[in-house]
Amino acid sequence: MPLERYVHRSAEDSLPQDLLAAARKHLPIDFQYVVVKHHEQRNSLSFTASSDWDELPEPSVGESYCIYSDGTVKYRPLPKRPQIYHHRWLFVRHGYQGFDVLAAKQRSLIFLQLRKQGILVVNSSRIGYLDVWQSEVMPILDLYL
After folding, report:
1. Which sign does the torsion angle of CA 100, 140, 120, 78 carry?
2. Any bridge partners for residue 66, and if so which?
3. Is 49:60 a contact under the CB 8 Å cutoff?
4. pLDDT (tens digit, 9 = 90+) per residue, 24-40?
């Protein structure tokens, strides 16, 4: 997404600090987010939970809060149709210790090469859904991992 930047919580200091500080004031005190998405055009930040971020190669998208620069807050519950993040290594800095960043990068490179070669054909707008990932991507990706 050209106007959206996703970062892991450990790299949130790379986002606009004034916007981040203002937005965090609107989050529930006990909300444990893992991913922060900065939408440049809307000047908003979304804070999303992911209970299995360090455990699964394609971790789950949990509930989230989107905070707009005017202070408007929009809560998004856990998606009814499970969603996932892929290419999670792009969210973290080099040296992140929660998962094997090099292995995650290699997994992404294999996935991208399979798409480039036409071996793995899946609509980009659908790969963020767990059911599509499991039924259309993993049977092929598993053959090359």
Report:
1. negative
2. 46, 74
3. no
4. 999 999 999 999 999 99
